[in-house]
Write a structure and sequence with these properties.
heterodimer, A: 263 residues, alpha/beta, Rossmann fold, two-stranded antiparallel ribbon, 10 helices, 36% helix, B: 362 residues, 2 domains, 14 helices, 20% strand
């Protein structure tokens, strides 16, 4: 029988961890897809040879420590303000690849103003929007994206739309804005979905490198800890409940008539 | 001799920014400082020096654009007036916590709340004591003429980069709107990408070359022992500023029995009050703090034993007077420190100040 040590040889290597992904152990809960999305982003940064150009902006939320995992220069924003930081960075450094990585509490609630205006100005940035319908880091409170009747720690009897309004579809909103060039909604719960998500991220990055304006990629995700489910249950629940309200697919993919003039 | 012009204080702030090699301005309109961004947009410095000017959707966004751009090692600034600066405090705290240099201008108006659009000095505490959350300090410069509105832009950037700390020009609506003769500064070149990499490559997020580790701009540190160490480092920096950067100006203090202490617009009023009092035979002098943080406590301590009393004059309910009292106390003195102020956008007259001297001391 073949020993493990006989198999672990460079010539047998079919897959490896991207060099742009650091060796730091991730703090994410088991079952969370933040790690998967970090991984494909790191792979793309390596494959597309843009490590030296990349400046990431981390959010407040579960991905607050994204800067520990992806080996590029990073800035840590205040809650919701990542698109404003990214604007400042890219306006003064137009040849950098600037991206934000934000959750739904960060982007759709406290940072709703900043993201709308950054997209409306067509800032030449990539926005990665992780939507799991809940505040994960603070312990599972209602987010603007929380589904109707969904139980969270601040909606213990389910989200009452009379009281809290309806789940906010940010991606549909930003797709309406002329500044965005590519707007899509993806997921990362199966190998096929991950591959598709990676293709979408690649397109978004390429658009930024081509100075086409804002690319906005939502990844519908789970929070099995906050949802009080096993990872498998959470994936099933996402497919059954999140996908009908947040349907996957490209919402906008246009060559802009002309890039927004930068002064 | 540089170029002489007759200009408004707000216009001069914009002109000085362009000339000192500023890379970017992000702002939001608010009275009485809107001429800063208007002048910049009119001047179109992006065609001349490459300076970027952008109108943000809010003061919150503006200060965070400053935060992002400052993180890349660029010279960036914003300006606003009191209510707008209140909105910026979250971002200012982050910038101080991340130890980034930048310039914030507060052309103060009367508060609280929406208040008035008339000049005020009621944001003194907010400017010099921190203002936002956490233990931090800004370097605070208080111009009292349109000329100083010009000169302090470059000085603020110099100090901000020297200490890797946000700097503030704390002025008011009177100085912003006032026209005076000003000698403009000569043009300085903006730093090139290579110069930035060389000067600030140890922290600026300019993109990670293979030759260095990634740079991370953050104020977050969950380990409280490490966070305390960060705070100790900040405090050491603030103490160093107190040793090296106290700036002030004195008028007729040599033989003064009573000393007025005032900054900015109220210092101009007090200079006239000093003349009037001298003509009446009262030996009055004026100490004008130029840096409000670090506060010029040392000179106050030196003057205290030589005088009979201090009168602090401010356009607020009495804020800097607390720092004057502290400085006198720390000098081991028991001199009287009195206060005269007007609020809500009123500028005191020199006559009122002389009356206050007579009422308090004679």
């Amino acid at each position: 029988m073949m020993e493990i040590k006989d198999i672990l040889k460079p010539e047998n290597l079919v897959y490896g961890k991207s060099k742009v992904l650091t060796d730091t152990i991730m703090h994410y809960c088991p079952g969370c897809t933040h790690g998967v999305i970090h991984k494909i982003l790191a792979e793309l940064i390596e494959e597309m040879g843009i490590q030296e150009k990349a400046v990431g902006v981390a959010p407040v939320g579960c991905a607050v420590f994204a800067y520990n995992y992806i080996d590029v220069d990073w800035q840590e924003a205040a809650h919701g303000r990542a698109p404003a930081l990214a604007t400042g960075i890219v306006r003064l450094n137009p040849d950098k690849f600037v991206f934000t990585y934000q959750g739904d509490g960060d982007l759709a609630s406290i940072g709703a103003g900043e993201i709308i205006h950054a997209c409306n100005r067509g800032e030449n940035i990539l926005v990665i929007f992780i939507n799991n319908g809940i505040y994960g880091m603070t312990g599972g409170q209602m987010a603007p994206t929380t589904l109707e009747n969904m139980v969270t720690s601040t909606t213990p009897f389910g989200r009452d739309v009379e009281m809290n309004g309806y789940p906010l579809k940010m991606t549909d909103l930003v797709a309406q804005l002329p500044g965005t060039s590519y707007v899509t909604r993806q997921s990362a719960q199966t190998p096929a979905a991950v591959r598709k998500c990676k293709r979408a991220l690649k397109k978004g990055i390429q658009n930024v490198l081509d100075k086409k304006g804002t690319s906005f990629i939502e990844v519908v995700s789970t929070c099995n800890s906050g949802w009080k489910m096993t990872p498998v249950q959470a994936n099933k629940w996402m497919e059954d409940h999140m996908f009908p309200y947040y349907p996957l697919g490209d919402m906008k993919d246009c060559e802009k008539e002309k890039p927004v003039e930068k002064n | 001799m540089g170029e002489l012009r007759l200009m408004k204080g707000n216009e001069v702030l914009a002109e000085a920014a362009i000339r000192c090699g500023c890379d970017g301005y992000f702002g939001y309109p608010i009275t009485p400082q809107s001429e800063v961004m208007e002048t910049l947009m009119e001047r179109q410095p992006w065609n001349e020096t490459g300076m970027v000017v952008l109108q943000a959707e809010s003061e919150v966004a503006a200060i965070n654009m400053v935060y992002g751009a400052a993180g890349t090692g660029k010279k960036v600034m914003t300006s606003s007036s009191s209510p707008g600066v209140s909105l910026m405090l979250e971002g200012i705290s982050y910038i101080a916590g991340a130890e980034l240099p930048c310039l914030i201008v507060n052309v103060q108006r009367g508060g609280p709340g929406l208040g008035t659009i008339q000049p005020s000095q009621a944001d003194y505490f907010q400017a010099v004591k921190g203002g936002g959350h956490g233990d931090y300090k800004l370097i605070v410069l208080a111009p009292s003429s349109v000329q100083e509105m010009n000169d302090f832009v470059d000085l603020a950037f110099e100090l901000a980069f020297k200490y890797r700390n946000p700097a503030m020009i704390l002025t008011d609506g009177a100085l912003g709107q006032m026209m005076e003769k000003v000698e403009l500064s000569d043009y300085k070149k903006r730093w090139t990408e290579n110069e930035i990499a060389e000067k600030w490559g140890s922290w600026a997020t300019t993109g990670k070359p293979s030759s260095r580790n990634r740079n991370i701009i953050t104020s977050l540190e969950l380990d409280s022992c490490k966070m305390e160490m960060n705070n100790r480092r900040f405090q050491e920096k603030y103490r160093q500023m107190e040793v090296e950067e106290q700036r002030y100006e004195m008028f007729s203090c040599d033989d003064a029995e009573y000393i007025l202490i005032a900054f900015g617009t109220s210092a101009r009023v007090c200079q006239k009050a000093t003349e009037i009092a001298r003509n009446k035979g009262i030996a009055v002098g004026l100490l004008r703090p130029i840096t409000l943080f670090p506060f010029p406590a040392k000179i106050i301590g030196e003057l205290a034993p030589k005088v009979k009393g201090f009168l602090t004059v401010e356009m607020n309910a009495g804020q800097m007077v607390e720092d004057v009292k502290q400085a006198v106390y720390e000098a081991g003195c028991t001199r009287r420190v009195e206060f005269y102020g007007r609020m809500g956008g009123i500028i005191p007259s020199p006559g009122e100040v002389v009356e206050a001297i007579e009422r308090n001391f004679l």
